[in-house]
Amino acid sequence: xxxxxxxxxxxxxxxxxxxxxxxxxxxxxxxxxxxxxxxxxxxxxxxxxxxxxxxxxxxxxxxxxxxxxxxxxxxxxxxxxxxxxxxxxxxxxxxxxxxxxxxxxxxxxxxxxxxxxxxxxxxxxxxxxxxxxxxxxxxxxxxxxxxxxxxxxxxxxxxxxxxxxxxxxxxxxxxxxxxxxxxxxxxxxxxxxxxxxxxxxxxxxxxxxxxxxxxxxxxxxxxxxxxxxxxxxxxxxxxxxxxxxxxxxxxxxxxxxxxxxxxxxxxxxxxxxxxxxxxxxxxxx
Amino acid sequence: xxxxxxxxxxxxxxxxxxxxxxxxxxxxxxxxxxxxxxxxxxxxxxxxxxxxxxxxxxxxxxxxxxxxxxxxxxxxxxxxxxxxxxxxxxxxxxxxxxxxxxxxxxxxxxxxxxxxxxxxxxxxxxxxxxxxxxxxxxxxxxxxxxxxxxxxxxxxxxxxxxxxxxxxxxxxxxxxxxxxxxxxxxxxxxxxxxxxxxxxxxxxxxxxxxxxxxxxxxxxxxxxxxxxxxxxxxxxxxxxxxxxxxxxxxxxxxxxxxxxxxxxxxxxxxxxxxxxxxxxxxxxxxxxxxxxxxxxxxxxxxxxxxxxxxxxxxxxxxxxxxxxxxxxxxxxxxxxxxxxxxxxxxxxxxxxxxxxxxxxxxxxxxxxxxxxxxxxxxxxx
Amino acid sequence: xxxxxxxxxxxxxxxxxxxxxxxxxxxxxxxxxxxxxxxxxxxxxxxxxxxxxxxxxxxxxxxxxxxxxxxxxxxxxxxxxxxxxxxxxxxxxxxxxxxxxxxxxxxxxxxxxxxxxxxxxxxxxxxxxxxxxxxxxxxxxxxxxxxxxxxxxxxxxxxxxxxxxxxxxxxxxxxxxxxxxxxx
Lengths: 285, 381, 184
Prior knowledge:
The complex is a heterotrimer. By secondary structure, chain B is of the alpha/beta class. Helices cover 40% and strands 19% of the residues of chain B. Chain B has two domains: 3-246, Thiamin diphosphate (ThDP)-binding fold, Pyr/PP domains (Rossmann fold), CATH 3.40.50; 254-374, Rossmann fold, CATH 3.40.50. In chain B, the strands form four sheets. A six-stranded mixed β-sheet of chain B has the order 10-12-11-14-15-16, sandwiched between helices. A four-stranded mixed β-sheet of chain B has the order 5-7-6-13. Chain C is globular, with a radius of gyration of 15 Å. Classes of the chains: A alpha/beta, B alpha/beta, C alpha/beta. The interface between A and B is large, with 47 and 43 residues.
């Protein structure tokens, strides 16, 4: 039997793009009976350009703020047409999810459609050329935060858990088996599911493309990006750390933080690592 | 045929019900809300087998409607005013992706200032988005146009969405006798949708609405233009088959005493009905006037307008939207169609201002005045 | 063509009454329409509905300014600044819900006045609900433009079961007891 190839080779994403790698694994798990929606963003490159397409499954390029709204209609139509087995998947970036797409996402979750929404979070508007989003971490340089971003990122996961989403998970392209397991779990959820995928971006974060998976792994190992899932409100950390790597290693590996002083990095590192223990504490609640 | 008293909103909803729409995605906005309340109730009671999506905005309403249509369902939404303006981004997608959606627009003024009441400023903002636009005048038409619009929209040669202009309150909330067809009649006229071309189907995968380079964009847009031209032809056939099935005849324009008229008024929607009574009142005073109502604004029926106005010396167009900065939209179209006529442009009925026989008398009194003549303007306000 | 204005207050059912009138006209193979004048909806605020009845299709879709009949649901409306004799001239009819005699000066503007205690009749038969069915009964009695049988049929179609029966009873009672005074 031929192996299902969900995404063609030779796609022109940036060198070292974690979003593309994750997409390959994601579609392999989802299988051919899947409809994919991508907004105009990095993931739209997978949907296609001109006469070419990347996905071998049906795909649609939605409007930036509207992946979840289109997905709601696709889902309800499939159900009434007797095609309830088809997966409806949104694959959107942080801008299209945390910023302009938040209203549609929140609405779709509230209504309870059976949708898999995967947000690949590269922490800025990368497709338009590295502008700040509400997912951009404190201190990070972008073209619209030339002196470093003030204030912390939006806690989208906390918001969606508070809204009562049946399944939410974080993931990292550097821990691909964990991500694959979570996609498989999301497929079984009778309702909306959300996977928040940390997607290291050499272009926007200013590091060597060969370092993508090391940088992504550092974020997890430093406790800055905690891998966990929340099933009906119950937290479970899927990668527990015996000890945390020094977070300063993560910041100094990327050009976007290079304007920060040692003191500022230490402060951000300490602050960020508190987040790891806060999630672990939730598991024990 | 059994006559039932119903208002324009309920008639439009009855049309959607009898068209057996499968997905309804809608957001409440005055004066459209009763349409989607009506459908929600029908689905809840099991009278209509459809999924209803209570979206959180009009923007999402049209996105969900497009999404549902893309997988092959017969999809429906309705809106008005600011809701339509919020949909604007997606009206382009619905038309560009050639989805046969039918959407009543219960015409209400676009703010500012805020108004709940009728004018055409909302729908005129969408006139170049590539939708078919029909304007209803009666509750009967509100029902009939929804049914026949699906047949038109889903035709292989057309594959375009349709907006049906329903004047807010003057039509949405007026109660009139309506001949309600039987479900069997409608089923015979309008078979289940057969999706064509751009369909999200796992057995026939397609990437839809992708980024399109300059080398392809113009050709895709040109196909859209051709579909609009096809719509003009197919619309005639759809009206004919509708008349054969239901006995009610429609056409792209409606003429009233235009044959021997020296002066012809042109208008759309409910004010055209009032215009026919105005024609009778003015004729009784010796004015040889006629009334031309435009039913299909997009595609614009240039030839039918030319034909209807060929005997007239003078043409007076009454627009229900201001058309600021230029000639208002209907006047622009009509003056282009008949450039050699003596031409008068009037604006009336904004923000719910009633259009009466007196409004037409005033329009007649400004015949030949250049510029845009605002009627019923109160001095000193 | 006969043109009618229904004058009421939010919650009194004037708009619904105007729709029932159209239903009743349909039973007589007549043409009719009813158009409410909408504002921001509030209980108690003045409400207007316009109706027309004709033997041929009605083209006009504008409000009524010179009615042949004013149907007044609440005789306190003048205190709210509502002049229900506006636009009245010549041979015009007033149908009014009032327990007391109508001010002769107001009544003199009309050629016929049909007075009924629609609130009282409705209260006895239906309890605290809008008196709109009774007002249609009074309209039928005063104008003869629509028969009471058609009104009753419209009410029963609109409200199947006991509510329809009771509303029909209220309309019939109002039809029977409306005191009509004709000046000409």
